[in-house]
Amino acid sequence: MDNTGRRQKADKPNPIDVHVGSRVRLRRTLLGMSQEKLGDAIGLTFQQVQKYERGANRVGASRLYDLSRVLDVPVSYFFEELGDASSASGANDQGGEPYQSNPMMKRETLELVRAYLRISDPQIKRRLFELAKALAAFPGAKAND
User: What predicted TM-score, i.e. pTM, was given to this entire model?
Assistant: First the structure.
């Protein structure tokens, strides 16, 4: 940071901005909304939405309020599970372990959950759940993270 407290271009985004952006992306994806549709709803381009979601741009209070209305969540939603991101920030500042992204925030996971939730037959849901558990127990089915 420079002596004004602002981050310089070469610095990484603030972990809190990254966290808020990931919560925007999570909710938008769960709703099946495109970045373009979200941008239109709050008067932004999809590129600006991308920057918010990456944490490259900080979300101001009025914009956060607009996002909460469009995404139908309370403003506090964007700060849920923040303990992980803020402790990661402290760890990075002190040379500790880097922040690991939450696998629940990955697009593939979100799309899988959305598809699962669209299944209306409870028996099919249960069979799919059992299949997923069986596949996870299969030798060589360990996480690639």
Answer: 0.61
Q: Give the residue numbers spanning the domain of 115.
A: 106-145
Is there a single domain that holds both residue 26 and residue 72? yes
Short-list 22, 36, 139, 144, CA closest to 77: 22
Which DSSP string do the residues of 93-132 spell out, in sequence order? HTT-PPPPPPGGGSHHHHHHHHHHHH---HHHHHHHHHHH
Total domains present in the chain = 2
Give the distance from CA 100 to its chain's centroid. 12
pLDDT digits (tens, 9 = 90+) for 41-99: 999 999 999 999 999 999 999 999 999 999 999 999 899 887 754 444 444 443 444 44
Same domain, 57 and 118: no
Confirm whether 8 is domain-assigned. no
